[in-house]
Design brief:
The protein has two helices and nine strands; from the N terminus they run αβββββββαββ. The protein is an alpha+beta fold and 97 residues long. It has a domain of 66 residues. Strands 2-7-8 form a three-stranded antiparallel β-sheet. A two-stranded antiparallel ribbon has the order 1-9. It is elongated, with a radius of gyration of 20 Å.
């Protein structure tokens, strides 16, 4: 999809009243119904092993931070039947206005 297509697709969606300026949206359809997806890492100290080297005991979990978004999801593309991650997820939204 070219930037011209994104700009025209964006006009199909009204601006959200609570949307801050500048506006960004989905690079495929121009929707502003975007969710940020972050990964929070949880590690468990291994406290016991079996004879085959498989962990069988764990300590308390330690949580990493999830402050940065790994990817973004367009909820409109997802609602339109996006099954494959490539159909609704992207790394960077595009500027709409």
């Amino acid at each position: 999809m070219t930037r011209d297509n994104v700009s025209s697709a964006a006009s199909d969606y009204p601006a959200r009243a609570d949307a801050p300026e500048p506006r960004f949206g989905c690079p495929r359809c121009g929707s502003e119904d975007i969710h940020g997806v972050s990964t929070t890492y949880v590690s468990y100290p291994i406290t016991a092993w079996d004879e085959d080297g498989m962990p069988v005991g764990f300590g308390n979990p330690e949580y990493g931070d999830g402050d940065e978004f790994d990817t973004y999801e367009c909820r409109d593309c997802l609602r339109k039947g996006g099954v494959d991650l490539a159909e609704f997820a992207f790394l960077q939204p595009v500027r709409l206005a």
